[in-house]
Amino acid sequence: MTTREKIYESAVVLIAEHGYAATTIDEIAAKAEVAKGTVYYNFGSKEELFRQLLGYGVDLLTSRMTEVSKGLKGTAALDAIFTEVLQRASKTPAFMQLLFTEMYRTGRAWQDTLLFVRENVLGVIRNVIAEGKESGEFDPSVDPETASAAAMGALAIAILDWLAYHPSTPVDELHKSVSQLLLRGLVG
Amino acid sequence: MTTREKIYESAVVLIAEHGYAATTIDEIAAKAEVAKGTVYYNFGSKEELFRQLLGYGVDLLTSRMTEVSKGLKGTAALDAIFTEVLQRASKTPAFMQLLFTEMYRTGRAWQDTLLFVRENVLGVIRNVIAEGKESGEFDPSVDPETASAAAMGALAIAILDWLAYHPSTPVDELHKSVSQLLLRGLVG
Amino acid sequence: MTTREKIYESAVVLIAEHGYAATTIDEIAAKAEVAKGTVYYNFGSKEELFRQLLGYGVDLLTSRMTEVSKGLKGTAALDAIFTEVLQRASKTPAFMQLLFTEMYRTGRAWQDTLLFVRENVLGVIRNVIAEGKESGEFDPSVDPETASAAAMGALAIAILDWLAYHPSTPVDELHKSVSQLLLRGLVG
Amino acid sequence: MTTREKIYESAVVLIAEHGYAATTIDEIAAKAEVAKGTVYYNFGSKEELFRQLLGYGVDLLTSRMTEVSKGLKGTAALDAIFTEVLQRASKTPAFMQLLFTEMYRTGRAWQDTLLFVRENVLGVIRNVIAEGKESGEFDPSVDPETASAAAMGALAIAILDWLAYHPSTPVDELHKSVSQLLLRGLVG
DNA sequence: TATGAATGAGCTTTCATTCAT
DNA sequence: TATGAATGAAAGCTCATTCAT
């Protein structure tokens, strides 16, 4: 593992746990087992480290989401996306946690970075929902804009809650529950 | 407005925008137009201010959620709860934003406070879903634990996204979209 | 002495000795017997402290120079100015040292502040020389622009050299030497 | 240009602009287009680089000053020296600037180096003035010690002011103004 | 009840220096 | 001879907290 990767990994985990503002470069360096200066040598600043970290993770996530849903439509596409997101959350829970706890900060500083993040993450789902609606598989009264945010939120908070309070439950059950809720609704 | 209230309001807004760790007592005092010492005179410490603020807001929210759903069951109860949450989000958007962005921090420091918060907010919804399931109105395969987290997440992220990126959309539309998604599903 | 004054005094002395860049806020705070935070509470930043310190000292110096030369012309005016500058150098040697060693830094950061400083200090002398030239007391071929810089430089370096290497020489001798050099020249 | 020369040139320019303390090895290496390690390979340390740079420049300057004034006395000798200093300042303005802004630092660290520098630079002028005084060309009441510092200062600051604020003025005019001022005085 | 000057621990950042290549 | 990733001491700065008024 390169120095950059060690720093990256440590930063993701710590920021996910304590948040960006509450995580110190000292902690990141200590966890990565490098000197504090090395973090700055490799990333320039705390802000830049976070920006790169968000960018990299979001790129990875959205490109995978796009890939697994390619050629699929409606229910099948959403299901593939849910599976992918859940698998990524199992493997790298810290990044998922980080993503959803920092994504709706509205202070000036991050606005453009976060807008980009949201656009990418929600965009993939919104497209699938919009297509499913046009093809007649989804209810015509569905609003893709709101529905994609709500669907993503359902998935995200279910994951965070699972990670924080029920980590022993198998991923499959989570998948089934969320899928069913979002596709068929509580009424069924 | 009393001194305490002025400080409370300012703190909610600022913490919602920048997060707990990134909000300073100086900023809170300045926004509330009181001296810094006054914040300490009234709340003792930053942590205590946040604890009281969370506690007060969550109490208010959950007691209202319980109240409006009293005597109702299943769909009707959920609908009443959604209406209430959305109304509160319209009136005090900052608190909602704060609640959902700070709720899944997993550092040691807050764990007990946040566990209490989560327990209360999710509890109300979980009970309604569990009752609806038993009464046969909701699908018997629904898992109230996961479904309540997912439902809360759908509502929460839909609200945050709305507040941050579509504040001009009427609440009613949001309500309709989220209700339909959670009750009937995308398939409808 | 107020807290601000204590910090001010300490900063002048230390910056005069080691230069702006080599003087630390820790040293200034220690010498002033206040906490480091107190320096920031009172001046905001190291740069701002230096700016205020320069501004205050230059104001004092130039207003005194203007005052003592008021109503006087040519030789008499210059002599009064030299007397005043030398007296100030005896009383507050540190500020004089600081002024002349930091005055010709040409890095971007200070350019505007230093331009202002130079304008004020040289301005007073330039006016006296220009008037003396017009009144016929000074040689008509003198260029006030260059001559004022040269005169200031002669005075400044004579003072610095005196402070650093001959502090025991009486001020009067210095005054006589510099006056004679600038008014009558080496040839006499 | 050798590696050492490239580093030397870059260091002179940057230290002249920002001062010794505010100039970093990184900047010097970048400007010289070599790696940071190369600066250390060639000069050992930042302090040693500065020492060599000062020593080399001062040697060159004083040896030229001595040479051009050899065989000359009084006015003629001084005029030759002024011409030489002005020519050097035209060619290598940065070193001149550096020399006079770092020469009167009185912190312990440099004291011996700077004393040596001052001794050499002022020494040449002091000797010429002392000789001119003995030969009767200069006023017998002139104090060579003070006069040499003042004369050097006049020349130096006139040069710095010229470099910083009137670089378009021809050297000749500067030369004439300073010569006249120092030899004949303002009264003429 | 309210104030705000003062504090100092701890933060982000810089930078001279080293060393394996 | 030259490199540049890595280091860590030390710098500038922030901010929760205290306390005399």
Automatic annotation (TrEMBL), chains A, B, C, D:
DNA-binding residue intervals: 24-43
Keyword DNA-binding annotated: yes
InterPro entries according to UniProt: Homeodomain-like_sf, HTH-type_TetR-like_transc_reg, HTH_TetR, KstR2_TetR_C, Tet_transcr_reg_TetR-rel_C_sf
HTH tetR-type domain residues: 1-61
Keyword Transcription regulation assigned: yes
One protein family per Pfam: TetR_N
Superkingdom of the organism of origin: Bacteria
Gene3D superfamilies named in the record: Homeodomain-like, Tetracycline Repressor, domain 2
Swiss-Prot/TrEMBL keywords: DNA-binding, Transcription, Transcription regulation
PANTHER family with a match to the protein in the record: HTH-TYPE TRANSCRIPTIONAL REGULATOR RUTR, MYCOFACTOCIN BIOSYNTHESIS TRANSCRIPTIONAL REGULATOR MFTR-RELATED
Name this protein carries in UniProt: TetR/AcrR family transcriptional regulator
